[in-house]
Amino acid sequence: MDRVKRNERLAVMMRILTESPNRIFTLGVFCEMFGAAKSTMSEDIDILRKVIDQFSMGQLETVTGAAGGVRYRPFVPQEKAYQYVKQLADLLSSPGRVLPGGFIYMADILAMPDLMQNMGMVIASQYYKSEPDFVLTMETKGIPVALMTAKALGVPMVIVRRDSKVYEGPAVNINYLSGSGARVETMSLSKRAVSEGQRALIVDDFMRAGGTARGMVDMMKEFSVTVAGVCVLVATKTPERKRLDGIRSLLVVESMDELNGSAQIAPANWLQ
């Protein structure tokens, strides 16, 4: 292999690190790839770290220990996170999105990869220290934001079903109260999906009273899995008392006008 120039190494390393968030790469991996000494690779990593910090592109961390190395985390600063979430709030506050029954039409927005990627990075930035082993969500609208969160964390995504599927093998089924408390519903999770002792980050798209989130927490208890956190994209301001404490939301529905089909939606207080 011909000698690789520094600017070429930096470009390749940046691509590799950003495409595999939160994954640890040892210096040996890059040394073997480029045929360079560890001291040279350390200098390259320092250059990348300065660039990433300068342009607020995330964090490039050095991990010590026998299995140590370097990893990239797409961390979003508070000010930038507020801008991302405010953009989403403006889109959801546009007229005509409120549906009968107090629901908000979000399907088109949840299908925007760039927007959901930003939301995933904002959520992941709050839970790196919690070190979840996977992201858990309920089918189906919560999947886009949960998948992008899982990508930023560098962990798998697990989907809870409303009923068991034959192709997923034996499953655990539990009953839970809907957000309104008016009816009992069922959720199902394959026994092979998670393992005892793992840590889960629960992510969903919308929450009114927190019934579904509470159901997913109860499901994790059945698997002896610790819940590292619960975060939703949008939560209603009422009822103030949810079925589960400690839920973090990116957006809050301040008020809703079903007659005119509009809602007042704003970034959550912790982002401001």
Defining key terms:
alpha/beta, 8 helices, about 35% helix, Arc Repressor Mutant, subunit A, Rossmann fold
Overview of this structure, please?
The structure is a single chain. By secondary structure, the chain is α/β, with parallel strands linked by helices. The protein folds into 2 domains: 6-73, Orthogonal Bundle (Arc Repressor Mutant, subunit A), CATH 1.10.10; 78-271, Rossmann fold, CATH 3.40.50. 35% of the residues lie in helices and 27% in strands. The strands form 4 sheets. It has a 6-stranded mixed beta sheet, sandwiched between helices. α1 (6-19) crosses α3. The termini are far apart.
TL;DR?
By secondary structure, this protein is of the alpha/beta class.
Please describe the topology of this protein.
Layout: H1 6-19, H2 27-34, H3 38-54, E1 59-63, E2 69-73, H4 78-92, E3 98-99, E4 103-104, H5 107-110, H6 113-125, E5 134-138, H7 143-153, E6 157-160, E7 171-177, E8 184-190, E9 199-207, H8 211-222, E10 226-236, E11 247-257, E12 262-267
Parallel strand pairs: 5-6, 5-9, 9-10, 10-11
Antiparallel strand pairs: 1-2, 3-4, 7-8, 11-12
